[in-house]
């Protein structure tokens, strides 16, 4: 296997190679660090590369291998990246804010602890939009994160760095987070798999609630199996969590090897009241629905009633710009404007109540259907800087009309999987759909996604500039 093939190999395969001592953790870390140094100047997928820490950890793990230790965690010696909205002890922690460029975390987030326990080696912190607020990754004071399939376009956001790094072979998989599409959108833009788990599946320790439960850590990978296995090790209750779910039984990885069984599947190309959708995004849904119908599933055009959700969800989501306690003068004009829209505590609680009532109505749709197929975004990725000259209010309106299929399932806490389906012939950018499931039914989505992936394999595709 040559070095490029090794860089793009599935993380599960890398773990097997390490266990068989066919490749060492040091060799893997050196491979990805070399690619980051050579390619990321154009891409901008990492804010911080932890070369010394990663190499030291790799050397320690390689020595353990040489000692013949057979009791190894599942991803022993496999590199990974962490989104820079999550804390890693001793590593720069910016939240996408230039004002925090010298901020060093003093603790590990709970999800980071889980990843370390699984044997991963952290390569660095991936780029995020400022405070994770936007579906594009262009924070002031940092280079923009570009799409590895076409560098003129965005990689999405706010996990834009994570998805771009995975797609470009600068890490085999990545941790991201999703408070309104921030895992699914970048995965769709960059042609990788993104899993937004159910509320309570992955802990936010050591902090508690995140925006009334709309935000959650998720998995980004090039294959469904890698994403499922990553979710397995990320999942689980940590003492004091305000929401939690039992551990999956069997594992999500095993779900990729099983048929999803008989399913009733709905599909829709729009998210009323927003009806404008590009032909490439709608066609991806129609093609997926046709494929599922050919396989014998009951497939019907239908959609939940999303009426009235935009305003209360936006009110809850906007509070993230002020809940962190960072002075308003340190933030971008867009985040300052969002902060001004948050209103009083009473208005926030009213928005939470309204959002929860509408969320119940959306979840009730899944009493009839097992899975819903939707676009991820309603339009293809925008160009880098495309909205830079717009006012904050104009930009916010553009965002709502772009990402509309994602936030409803942050409101409901349901699981969703973004899955690549093809390429836009005009821009060369990936096209994707998302599969949404019943609460806590990640296994059903993962089984179905694996079946689609087997019929329409994707991971052999590589961005041209990253293939050398």
SSE order and pairing:
Layout: H1 3-7, H2 11-19, H3 25-43, E1 46-49, H4 51-66, E2 79-83, H5 110-117, E3 121-126, E4 146-147, E5 150-154, H6 160-167, E6 173-178, H7 184-190, E7 193-196, E8 216-221, H8 224-234, H9 252-255, E9 264-267, H10 279-294, E10 298-301, H11 310-318, H12 333-340, H13 345-364, E11 371-375, H14 392-403, H15 408-412, E12 416-423, E13 430-437, H16 442-455
Parallel strand pairs: 2-3, 9-10, 9-11
Antiparallel strand pairs: 1-3, 4-5, 6-8, 7-8, 7-12, 11-13, 12-13
Helix pairs in contact: 3-4, 6-7, 11-13
CATH architecture: Alpha-Beta Complex
Would you identify the CATH H-level superfamily? Amidase signature (AS) domain
- Cross-sheet strand order for the largest sheet: 6-8-7-12-13-11-9-10
The tally of beta strands, per DSSP, is 13
Radius of gyration: 21 Å
Can you characterise this structure?
The protein has a single domain, classed as Amidase signature (AS) domain (Amidase signature (AS) enzymes). Strand 4 (146-147) and strand 5 (150-154) form a beta hairpin. The mean pLDDT is 96. Helix 3 runs antiparallel to helix 4 (51-66), helix 6 (160-167) runs parallel beside helix 7 (184-190) and helix 11 (310-318) crosses helix 13. Helices cover 37% and strands 14% of the residues. By secondary structure, the protein is an alpha+beta fold. It has helices at residues 3-7, 11-19, 25-43, 51-66, 110-117, 160-167, 184-190, 224-234, 252-255, 279-294, 310-318, 333-340, 345-364, 392-403, 408-412, 442-455, and strands at 46-49, 79-83, 121-126, 146-147, 150-154, 173-178, 193-196, 216-221, 264-267, 298-301, 371-375, 416-423, 430-437. It has an 8-stranded mixed sheet with strand order 6-8-7-12-13-11-9-10, sandwiched between helices. Strands 1-3-2 form a 3-stranded mixed sheet, sandwiched between helices. The longest helix has 20 residues, at 345-364.
